[in-house]
Amino acid sequence: MARSLTRLLALPAALACALALGGCAPLPRPAPGDSDGVQRAGATPSWLRILGTAAIAPGTEWGGSVFGGISGIDRDPATDEYLLISDDRSARGPARVYTARLRYGVQGLAPPEITGVHLLRAPDGRPFAARSAARVRVDVPDAESVRWLPGAAQFLWTSEGDFGRGFGPQMRAAHADGSHARSWTLPPAFQPGPGHGPRGNGTLEGLALAPDGRSAWLAMELPWRQDGPTARHGRPGAPVRITQLDLDSGRPLRQIAYQPDAPPQPRALPFGPELNGVSEILADGPHHLLVLERAYSTGRGFAARLYRIDTRSGSDTLALPALAPGSHRPAAKTLVADFAALGLPVDNLEGMAWGAPLADGSCVLVLVSDDNFNPAQATQFIAAEYRPPGGGNAACGTTGGP
Length: 402
Known about the structure:
Tachylectin-2, Chain A
């Protein structure tokens, strides 16, 4: 969610936390019996083993810009550098990506090292305009996810768009230096309209590149308007759509429905957000995706759960103008980890990537949070060993299970 949840808060996050008296602590694990009918990976999921966490303080300046708003992450295997995209919307500096190094092992995660910054550029070669200066129809991207293409000469990146200025969600490719390489025309159904289409600030939050590099999966954060309501505590809401796009032709190949959970806790104030949605997806072999759900309830804080789905298990919803019970089969999902059950306080987790394997070949997931440029938050990095039952992920995302 662009600049994540701050634009939805009725009060600035720090004030909302203070009024709640409990601070912005992570949400506790749902009580037994808070069943949502999801296939669980055991009573206490153990697919993840936390290696370590680290943080970059809010307000950190680097390369003439304020570091923060990190909404997507991906690793270049050749250089072992991570690409980090900011959803700043050119407010504290032009739209940009950072590079960084992360060092971790079984002993923990070292402090991240920022190594570079590159401006994202429009097709005319100029940096994207600042939102404050955009008085007319000027594209101000709300960057949310990033994936290197094979060879790491170009990367894909998504924008949630700016509905107020007439821009819907977008996917582009950029060269490694941030200069424009290509844009895709998304299907008409991706564009907002009266009573239908994506919700503002709830569109292309997740992006996964297929292992063969020929297609990408694009995940909506929130349901399309015609598909039903968003999640609330005690009510999971409508499913979200995840669409596979052929990168060569730009043609949509398939679309599946994914059902997020209800937020684990109600908000502690009578106003402010209480929501849950998809904040990132990641390919785990040719037929599986890891899906990161991020929840927020005012005065309670953030929560996160990680699921694994088989993209073949859901029916194709491309031809369905609206999703209704019985009209489709959502993709079955298996719980990989509930971060509250792991005892790990989480911030606003929005990015997820495969990290360098451990010395013994074990796979590692790296997650990162968006600090919203809020002094009450931080950019949190998490390194976790990924241990699916029966193993099988020797190539860490490129082969997957059956």
